[in-house]
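Please think about what follows:
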Amino acid sequence: RHQAATAESLADWIKEQPQVQDVLYLKYAGEKNKQYTGYGAMIGIKLHGGEAESFRFLNALKLIKLAVSLGGTESLAEHPFFMTHIDVPAEEKAKIGITENLVRISVGLEDRKSTRLNSQSHSDLVCRLLLEKKKKKKNKQRRKKKKRKDKRKRK
């Protein structure tokens, strides 16, 4: 139950991040089944972008380790397009939803708060992407402001 509660909390938080296109989690599937009492510990994340964004995300992970085999007591992540499904033909990958922007996370038994705090304070998960986007936007605004200033000086 602890594992599923941590996963639900993390999935809810990830879903709110602007770099996330979609979160694939049982809670969001829209149907409640009598066969289960919780939503499980597996989270699929489709990021805006493709391969580069997915690997930037995976490389930013600190607490969650990259692995081919998911499940167990520690939080793990994988990139199915280039890892577990590397030998699957492209048409089949597309058919079953395995895309270059998909990352899967298996949430472990770590404390719910530490998983979330780690992701926020150590640029884990999508925080790094968020910070990079804000930084680019800020730099762009600074350049525009400088251009306007230089233009006024010339007049």
The longest strand covers residues 42-47. The CA atoms of residues 35 and 100 lie 32 Å apart. Residues 127-154 form the longest helix (28 residues).
